[in-house]
Amino acid sequence: MTVSIRDLRPGVRADAESVVRVRRAALPFMIATAEGVAFELSSAHPAKHHRILVAETPDGRVVGTAQTGIAYDSPEPGQSYVNAYVDPAHRGLGAGTLLLRAAEEHLAARGARDVYAWVLDEPASRAFAERHGYRPGRSAHFLRLDLAAAALPEPPRERDLPAGVELRPGSAFAADPRPLFEADAETTADEPGDVAADLDDYEDWLAQTWNNPSLDKELTTVALVDGVVASFAAAQTDGGTRYLSAMTGTLRAFRGRGLAKLAKSASLHRARAAGYTEAFTGNDAGNGPMLAVNEWFGYEICATETRYTRRLETL
């Protein structure tokens, strides 16, 4: 069966829904919605050269998809990414190879030097990456919590919070989200990873992060110390049963006080009260402190990915 590659058609909901179906089948540990896919494409910074590719059979069925673009916010030029997913029920048609080839051609034409790809840590996926010249680097874990049944630690009542500490929902910053941008920028800079990111464009952050339809501003929780943002737990949801910890971070000056646990505990309790039954998160395998926090809540590792890379000059 011949498979063809094309771009996702902006504004065509059936296309976005097909991408969601493939992503959920290939990687069921992440939040995926049609609105989120459409937003991902429409909100991308021009310098990102972001594309969503689909692999389609002659009868019009989408069996694979890939996200690809330039890591424009990296302080090191020439960094890029491709993440390809093939529906497990339709492997063996060559969709993955065609998606990867199209993505690499796109990246090379825009001056990319290194391309990074997250690869599920299982034999077939690793073998595919290595056949195409990719080499493994650091790993990250997906973690899952049965939110409906979890024995969550009770969040402290407001009067029992440490002196000067208060918890607020992300929605409390609707009029001025800049303090959350500044907190996100500092904590992201300290995140372990292969490709560094400098968050220094507030308008871009508003467009891509704050206005993301998957970001649940009511469940996102912020810990303040004497009125200053000190820690936060950003939450994304699918509008159904799934909750994702998109980012949990504490500013350097406030670390070691348990503020991330406070923020995340409050967020998880509110998520359960809102009817969400599964909670997911992801952690770099070397991020011991955050892995310990999530283990404390009852999260368990459910899958692992490895970051593979290839030098495009070898093409």
From TrEMBL:
Q: Does the keyword NADP apply?
A: no
Q: Name one GO molecular function term.
A: acyltransferase activity, transferring groups other than amino-acyl groups
Write the signal peptide boundaries: none
Concerning SUPFAM superfamilies, the annotation shows: Acyl-CoA N-acyltransferases (Nat) (SSF55729)
Q: Could you identify this protein by its name?
A: GNAT family N-acetyltransferase
Q: What keywords sit in the KW lines?
A: Acyltransferase, Transferase
Q: Which residues form the N-acetyltransferase domain?
A: 3-158, 165-315
Pfam families reported for this sequence: Acetyltransf_1
UniProt keyword Acyltransferase present: yes
Origin species: Streptomyces venezuelae
